[in-house]
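Worked problem 6 (solution included).
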Amino acid sequence: HETAGVSIAQYMAALDAGANQVDLSMSPASGGTCQPDVMTMYHALRGSEYDMGIDPVKVYEAEDVFKECMKDYFMPPEAKKVEPLIPLSPMPGGALTANTQMLRDNDLLDRYEEITKNMGEVVIKGGFGTSVTPVSQFYFQQAFNNTMFGPWKKIADGYGKMVLGYFGKTPVDPDPEVVKIAQEQIGMEPTTRLVVDINDENPALGIEAATQMLIDNGISDLSEENVFIAAACLDKGIQFLKGEAKANVRKNVKEEEEPVAPAAPAAPVAPAPVAVPTAAQGVTVTVNGRPYGVQLNGNTAIVNGLSYNVDVRAGIAAPAAAPVPVAPAPVAAAPVAPIAPAAAVRVAPAVAGGTKITAPMPGLVLRISVAVGDVVTEGDEVMVLEAMKMETPISATAGGTITEVHVSQGDQVKSGAVLVQIG
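Solution. The predicted structure is:
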């Protein structure tokens, strides 16, 4: 890919070494996380002994058609540029945009550069395994954890198993201290056994286990294809087969501007309480690019599912003395429709009493393990969140009966959102 900015030089060297074919792309899907453009390579080879055998005019015409076909689709800006961090933080193009999209979905894109910088250390201490799927994802997941939770405070499952030897031998021995930390956190011993032998002994893997997974989820078509999908993709495969999977193809959405009526001059009045939306309404407040779902009800503000006591009054720096009670002054303003929270992001309602189980980080609700009326004990799994392709089990922090489940499978939740209530 072109993310490191050296693909044309690499291709030229490959041709000089005897290669007779190179992979290229067409604009707007060229450069950045994809291959260099056909016309860029054409220009680099002009005057040389190499002939691509193309008509450049027709290539430009074809690219114009392609651009028109792609105009409605969202193109992440980071997918189109050279990233100087990549040579020392080797993340393939496909992994880069997959990860930035997950960061974008979880309102964490501002941490991207920090995570990418931390990836260099993760590669070195992980033993320099080749950064392609799934190892590139292991690296990014561990760099993500090091950024969000502190260096080596939380070992990603895949990365931990890799340094312990469960994916084979790495080119260089992993850092002994990281191996020790992974051993303690994951609860597995280092191994030098063949991966195929380990997998063959695992009853959760294989045709029989995948077939049972289909049956348990009410899927009657036990074809080889469906068994393969269940075995390879697990919960996500089941969601796909049940028609519950969500496509990650993004289209540009044009926001319609609301007409704003000019405000009439208001006569000076004493400070009066500000009229706020009711609890049934809500607004999305975006601060430094991060959206927050806010509901207001009297002196209570519900922000991303958490309740806060607030005192809202007109003006800046209201006087300390309580104002004389007066009737709220009418304010001329254009009608404002309630602003819905971002698509697929659930803002849980405030809950009273009992124990609230909240999301420790943003993520996708991958699986819900309980229903209203179920009795749980402290430590029981109530659901599983997925963030950055990592599954995070959510456990009950107290025993009792499930009185509310505030989310549904497939919801994207914010950090701190109420997931489950235990009575």
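Discussion: Confidence is low (pLDDT under 50) at residues 271-280, 317-352.
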